Q: What sequence folds into this?
């Protein structure tokens, strides 16, 4: 289980006073990148031409988040196949009894020609 | 079926050269707002304190989009209950044989106290 | 003088109820891309490897914009040199007596190696 | 002088491979919020109805930033008057000889009715 903190700034909220729903996908991606490690991701991208692509996502919203909140993004994953990794990601408020948002994010790897390749075994 | 065009600008893409995945949720929301009509949405929000909230979403990515593409966002909906509307939304490339992205977006309505209320019959 | 309309969606606003200040730079860029024309920009980018880069910007905020507003982005330009084009861009509300936001955006052109090149004479 | 680190994710870049210019305004705002402190900002906003608004900005771009870079946002400020604070903010690469981006951001404070008020003496 990986933990990653996200603080909510003006940019994250909308006129309802709460975080704009699409932004949670950004927080989930930031958390995945920290779980994998930026040095590995940079090497893959700039040297090997390997990128990570979101193939499918489902997301459930239970509670909102407001300006100044510091959220805990919790991430774990399961291998669906050697070509597909499913991340299980949740947003938790400090002291919250259950996840405010939870999601499953299916990730694949592609080469320079955008062809799917087996996901490198970076996470095992 | 509602159609709404979205042109892809620098802001929409990421360093992979394609549209950043979270941005499709923005295009879907723009399309829903045009389907409902901004005058109705403004009146609800500013006069009645009624807002629309995304409660759940699933999204499937089949093909990417690049700088300068003009996408056709196709939207229809079904009533799940009087409290929940499910939008079926797709992204089509000009001349594409199938949707590049498809999604189901579950929408609820809330009042000033963020309590769920029946969705106004604006779409019937 | 080029005119380009921008409608304000949930995504554009922040918890103050008004458009988040950084977003105006996005509207200005959308307006410039329409003024130049996407076909030209696509050809430059995908065939010639020529991109446009913002080199300098100043921006003044006089009034905000809210959910549902449709803004008129007004753009004109002057040549500073053959390497630099200055766009004068303003945001107008319908019926407004003066610009809500005004900006000068300095644009340069770069080749594949990110070296500055003379700006193609697309705008004359 | 306040230092604040920003890591560059997919969301920050555009199809040129570099950070999208408008995003630097977000980094500057994050840095200012950390310099002031989120507890103070939350209390102002939620209890006193006081918000901070950007009134004017100028920004200069000297070098870009890429995926995986960790930037150092350096912020200081001067009082222009009791109503206006000018932040001097810069983006530095690790080991860089000069700022990649530098900006002056003029900040004012407004009350619930969006009338300007003297800036609280939180920073002295």
A:
């Amino acid at each position: 289980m990986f933990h990653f903190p996200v603080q909510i700034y003006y940019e994250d909220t909308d006129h309802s006073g709460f975080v704009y729903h699409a932004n949670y996908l950004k927080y989930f991606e930031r958390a995945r990148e920290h779980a994998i490690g930026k040095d590995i991701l940079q090497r893959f991208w700039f040297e090997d031409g390997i990128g990570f692509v979101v193939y499918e996502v489902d997301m459930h919203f239970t509670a909102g988040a407001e300006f100044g909140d510091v959220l805990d993004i919790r991430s774990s994953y399961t291998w669906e196949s050697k070509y597909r990794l499913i991340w299980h990601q949740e947003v938790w408020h400090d002291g919250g009894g259950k996840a405010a948002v939870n999601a499953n994010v299916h990730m694949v790897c592609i080469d320079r020609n955008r062809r799917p390749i087996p996901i490198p075994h970076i996470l095992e």
Notes: The first helix of chain C runs from residue 23 to 36.
